Inverse folding.
């Protein structure tokens, strides 16, 4: 039996034993599959979000790249991330407090039941959880109140579409401090270059430093996807800051070499992106 | 209609219009599929080898990483590579002559018919083609006669299995000059770590510098695969040598940032590889 996911010309199929959970929340269809090689797999509206085997890659890359780019972050806003994986990684940095805003409480409940090792963070006193809409939350947040914003959402459709609008990026820019930065879902060079360019263009008009970086998820169609880092001041491959990157304990994927490497851009992508950020 | 390929827990399916060619050569089953998004796809014994859309990534990474690591290569041996793509990339370097040894003449014929843009190299006077067994060819080659050896083969089975034996690597070491180096297929960290470690271990006992590097092929199950560079003298991220990397004309993937980035190793892989090269 396979869990199958189509994305353009690719269909990715993951060998699974059975579907062990399914529910329709107010916002989306939630499924959990059990697999011998990948552990449990979380699927939202038909898209694989993570497996227990490879979730560390996505979560380490979404959290530590922005954190190690910032000189001294203390306040992080996570929008989405109801599974808890992104927060788990941020909490490895002892001086950081988190506000986490998840629209769908059911995702948290499912994660607590089926993704042990990811969801324990919700007991941590340094994490302040709000069940609500990230777009509304950020519109009501104070100016310059966060060092870092991490958007850990599904793709740009349905309840997540507002997180990919220029108005949202502008609000994020407003609530970030003068040396603040953010990371968001950035689609994929090979599977959906147009969507990638769209996001880069929107953020490029608001932030001085806007750079895509690569991560890999064996559970995603096409495997190589991108986050986009948008920063007011710090540059993600400045070596002084990166000294911290290799001192984080218990990581499985991320290190300073990986941070630098993740920003390398193939020549065909450079040609595609020419001029985008300035328009 | 899909072309489907299973590798462990992953099944990769590529949308295709039709199978436009199939033959059984003396060595393998050869198929060509036509696809809207990927162009023609070459399949050997059920494994996708390349598509017209993404073959540039594989061939640029197999050729230019070793060439730009070497200070002044003039003589390259390609074993396999009957489609011509690897040779096309090597020939971009004007001072290099190639011996190419392909066991299956039928692969060359199919490439000439269905992969224009890849196979024109066989008319080039700087390429000397031999139809024959790479293992035999290298056993009969003179000591220290090549600067670089590139092994562009199918996986370690059937007629290719000899190219993954210690005896072959030892012969390669013998026919390489004192500052020579080679690159070979290195399997995949995520899809087949055991095979990757096997190859590293065999080469590690023969060469001072043995390093895996990553490339991506959307047509391969798991997408991210590895080559392994084995070198007697030169190190692949030495910056003086890399100055040449950005001066090669008409490339679509490779550049000096990509060369450095391709050698970055995730932390879980470092832990897996601990001690391998020394045993």
């Amino acid at each position: 039996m396979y869990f199958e996911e189509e994305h353009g010309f690719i269909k990715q199929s993951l060998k699974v034993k059975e579907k062990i959970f399914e529910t329709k929340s107010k916002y989306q269809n939630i499924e959990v599959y059990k697999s011998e090689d990948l552990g449990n797999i979380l699927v939202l509206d038909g898209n694989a979000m993570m497996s227990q085997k490879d979730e560390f890659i996505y979560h380490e890359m979404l959290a530590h790249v922005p954190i190690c780019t910032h000189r001294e972050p203390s306040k992080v806003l996570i929008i989405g991330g109801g599974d808890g994986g992104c927060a788990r990684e941020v909490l490895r940095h002892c001086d950081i407090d988190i506000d986490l805003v998840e629209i769908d409480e059911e995702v948290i409940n499912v994660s607590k039941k089926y993704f042990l090792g990811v969801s324990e963070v919700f007991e941590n006193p340094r994490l302040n959880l709000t069940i609500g809409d990230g777009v509304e939350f950020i519109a009501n947040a104070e100016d310059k109140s966060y060092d870092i914003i991490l958007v850990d959402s599904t793709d740009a459709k349905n309840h997540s579409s507002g997180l990919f609008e220029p108005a949202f990026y502008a609000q994020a820019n407003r609530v970030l401090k003068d040396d603040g930065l953010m990371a968001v879902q950035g689609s994929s060079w090979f599977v959906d270059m147009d969507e990638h360019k769209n996001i880069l263009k929107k953020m490029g008009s608001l932030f001085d430093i806007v750079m895509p970086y690569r991560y890999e998820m064996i559970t995603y169609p096409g495997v190589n996807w991108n986050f986009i880092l948008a920063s007011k001041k710090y540059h993600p491959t400045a070596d002084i800051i990166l000294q911290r990157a290799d001192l984080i304990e218990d990581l499985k994927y991320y290190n300073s070499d990986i941070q630098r490497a993740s920003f390398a851009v193939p020549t065909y992508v450079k040609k595609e992106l020419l001029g985008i950020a300035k328009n």
